[in-house]
Design goal:
Layout (H helix, E strand, L loop, with lengths): L1 H23 L2 E7 L6 H20 L8 E7 L4 H13 L6 E2 L4 H13 L4 E3 L18 E3 L4 H15 L3 E7 L2 H13 L6 E8 L7 H9 L4 E5 L3 H11 L7 E4 L6 H7 L7 E5 L12 H15 L14 H16 L4 H8 L5 E2 L4 E2 L14 E7 L2 E4 L2
Parallel strand pairs: 1-2, 1-3, 3-4, 4-5, 6-7, 6-8, 8-9
Antiparallel strand pairs: 10-13, 11-12, 13-14
Family: Belongs to the leucine-binding protein family.
Protein name: ABC transporter substrate-binding protein
InterPro entries: BCAA_transport, Leu-bd, Leu_Ile_Val-bd, Peripla_BP_I
Length: about 400
C-alpha cells in the first residue's frame, strides 16, 4: 500500500514538474512571410516588424511571464510553399499559433489545413475570403488584421456618394485579391446609389493597361476604381493619365498607399484618391484619437531600426505589429498558452488598439475593424493628404 502511495506521489510530482517546466519554456509561435517572389517587399518588412515587436515584448517580461520564440519561414510568394511551411510549423516545430501569411492566395492555401488541425492563425492578408465563411469554408481558427475588402469598398463608396458620384467603372486584377474586390464593388454599389457602367480585368503582372483604360473611359464613368496591388496600380494610373480629353476621377484600393506608388506613378498620381490606414497621415489625427500615440511610437521605433531606408512606411507596415499585438492580448485574456483558450479569447477581444485600427472582434467577425479605422487619402503635390 505504501509503495502504491509512493508511486502515486512521484507521478504527481513528475506531472507538476512537467507543468512547471512548460510554464517556464518560451511560447513558440510560427510566422509565414513572403520574403522572396512578387510580394517580397511586403513580406520581408512584415518579418522585420514582427521581430521588432516581439523583441520589445520579451524585453518587457514576455507574455504570461514567458518569452516568445518565433519560427519564421519564407513562403516565396507561392501558395504551395505556404502550405508546406505551415505543415512544418505545426508538425515539426510544434508552434502554438501562426502569424501570416502575406497574400490572400497563400492564406486560402493554408486555411483548410490549419482549420482542420485547429491552429489559431492571425493573417496579414488583404482579401475577405479567409474569414468570409460560406463557400470559402469555415474560419473558426482564422483571423486577419488588414481591413476587409468590403470595408475598404464601403469607405470608397461613402466618399464617392458624398462627392455626388453615381456612375463608376471597375478595373480589377485577375488574382484572388482583385476578384475579391470586384465581388464587393458590385455587391455594394446599389446600397450607395452607384451604377457600375463598365468593368475590365487586368493581369497584375502586365505592364500596360491602355486598352482597358480606353474601353472604360468610353463608358463615360464619373470615376474609375482600380483594384490591384503592387506596380500595376501605378501603371494603370499612367495609362488613364495618357488618355485624351477629360479624365474620370481615379480611385485606388487600400493595398496601394505607400511611397512606391508615388514614385512609380509620378505626376499621374495627382488627384488620385484611395482608402488607407491612419499610418499614412498621422499628423492629421486628433490628439484624442486612441491610435495616434500607438502609430507615432510605431513610426519612431520603425525609423530607429533603420527599416524605412529599404522599406518605406506604407499602409501594410503595421499589419505584423497588429497581428503580434492581438496574439499578446489573446494570450493574456486566455491566461494560458493553449490553442483552444487562445482562439476563444481572440474572437472576443474588445478595444485592442493597433496601428491599423481599434480591434473589437466577435465570433462572427474575425477582423473587428469598421470604416472608421480607415481614412480617405488624396495625392496632392506628390504627397498623401486627407481627401475631402
Amino acid at each position: 500500500m505504501f509503495k502504491k502511495i509512493l508511486i502515486t506521489c512521484l507521478l504527481c510530482l513528475m506531472t507538476a514538474g512537467a507543468v512547471d517546466s512548460a510554464g517556464t519554456q518560451p511560447i513558440k509561435i510560427g510566422a509565414l512571410f513572403a520574403e522572396s517572389g512578387k510580394v517580397a517587399d511586403v513580406g520581408t518588412a512584415s518579418r522585420l516588424v514582427a521581430e521588432m515587436t516581439l523583441k520589445e515584448i520579451n524585453a518587457g517580461g514576455g507574455i504570461l511571464g514567458r518569452t516568445v520564440e518565433m519560427v519564421v519561414y519564407d513562403t516565396e510568394s507561392d501558395p504551395n510553399v505556404a502550405l508546406r511551411m505551415a505543415r512544418q510549423l505545426v508538425e515539426k516545430d510544434g508552434v502554438l499559433a501562426i502569424i501570416g501569411p502575406t497574400s490572400t492566395g497563400s492564406g486560402m492555401a493554408i486555411k483548410k489545413y490549419t482549420e482542420e488541425n485547429e491552429i489559431p492563425v492571425i493573417m496579414t492578408v488583404g482579401g475577405d475570403p479567409v474569414i468570409a465563411g460560406g463557400k470559402f469554408g469555415p474560419y473558426a481558427w482564422t483571423f486577419k488584421v488588414p481591413q476587409r475588402s468590403s470595408t475598404a469598398v464601403r469607405k470608397i463608396y461613402e466618399n464617392l456618394q458624398a462627392k455626388g458620384v453615381s456612375t463608376v467603372a471597375l478595373l480589377t486584377a485577375s488574382d484572388g485579391f482583385g476578384q475579391d474586390g470586384l465581388r464587393h464593388l458590385e455587391a455594394l454599389a446599389d446600397e450607395f446609389g452607384i451604377t457600375v457602367a463598365a468593368k475590365e480585368t487586368m493581369d497584375p503582372q502586365a505592364m500596360d493597361f491602355s486598352a482597358q483604360a480606353f474601353k472604360l473611359s468610353m463608358a463615360g464613368p464619373q470615376a474609375v476604381i482600380i483594384w490591384t496591388m503592387g506596380p500595376s496600380g501605378a501603371v494603370a494610373t499612367k495609362n488613364f493619365a495618357n488618355l485624351p480629353g477629360d479624365k474620370p476621377l481615379l480611385v485606388q484600393c487600400h493595398g496601394i498607399p505607400g511611397p512606391k506608388f508615388l514614385e512609380l506613378a509620378g505626376s499621374a498620381a495627382e488627384g488620385v484618391i484611395m482608402p488607407g490606414t491612419k499610418i499614412m497621415a498621422p499628423d492629421y489625427l486628433a490628439d484624442d484619437d486612441p491610435q495616434k500615440s500607438v502609430i507615432l511610437k510605431f513610426i519612431e521605433d520603425y525609423t530607429a531600426q533603420g527599416y524605412g531606408e529599404k522599406f518605406p512606411l506604407n499602409t501594410h507596415s503595421g499589419y505584423a505589429f497588429d497581428a503580434v499585438t492581438l496574439l499578446k492580448a489573446g494570450l493574456e485574456k486566455a491566461g494560458a498558452a493553449e490553442r483552444t483558450a487562445l482562439r476563444d479569447a481572440l474572437e472576443t477581444l474588445q478595444g485592442v488598439v493597433g496601428v491599423s485600427g481599434v480591434f473589437s472582434l466577435t465570433p462572427e467577425d474575425h477582423n473587428g475593424l469598421g470604416t472608421d479605422s480607415m481614412i480617405m487619402l488624396e495625392v496632392q503635390d506628390g504627397q498623401y493628404r486627407l481627401a475631402e
